[in-house]
Amino acid sequence: MPSLLSSHRRTVSCIAAAWLVSICLIGPLEAQPGGAPANAAQGAGRGQASPAAKPPPPTTTPQQYPREQVETGRIRFASQCGFCHGRDGAGGEGGTDLTRSALVAADLRGDRIAPVVRAGRTDKGMPAFTLPDAELAAIVAFIHDQKTQAESSAGGRRAVDVTDLQSGSAEAGKRYFDAACSTCHSASGDLAGIAGRLQGLALLQRMLNPASDRGGASPRAAPTVTVTTASGQVVTGRLAYRDEFTIALTDASGWHRSWPTRQVRVTIDDPLKAHVDQLGKYTDADMHNVLAYLQTLR
Length: 298
Hints:
Number of helices: 10
Mean pLDDT: 77
């Protein structure tokens, strides 16, 4: 059976998709609200509340992409986004089905997807991803290709098969953990008994993206931002929004404040940044090996 994260190549992250696409592309990219006609079949995954019971929203502007670009995007998507959105973009255990996303349906060659990937949606557990233009364009091409296939298919949203995750070596995972993770985490400390609290995809999501509150993980605290203006005023608060043009925060009094990024100096204290950086270092084998090791911590 193919691996859930099928790429065996190193890629740069975030979130993924922080954390890919929940980049984490979302609680990420919003899915079209589901619902079935009154006479729809009520089998498993086909009830009126299931998104799979309703056809994907039609693409506003049909698009075609070179097959080579789509295949490159398939590899990048699997590594950056597949742990939340499924390796085919049709949704994971908790991630959005991007083939049924209204935002994807309205997107034209990345004009709507790219800003979400680069800015993230921290309130929904999706970090911002810094990706080269060519890599992001390939991911966009793959998403649209998958949506085109979904529009012509009678199939619905698939579930994630837990056996997809069971390909790692616990021994190799412990070696990786000791070298890369033990500075911040301890098998006998903060991670003691984690395999009894989280299993399968929920544990993998927690490992790759602690920002997510899926699967019993704790919601992420927003990073702390310190903004220094040209006049020397210093303002500190919780990160509310960030892209290449704007930085916004909520200060201690609850006021929302924002500035053009080119006019201020910004310092961000994000305790989970190491997890975002780690996404760019993992290979597919590394991820499954570390997961296999975490599954022994009962």
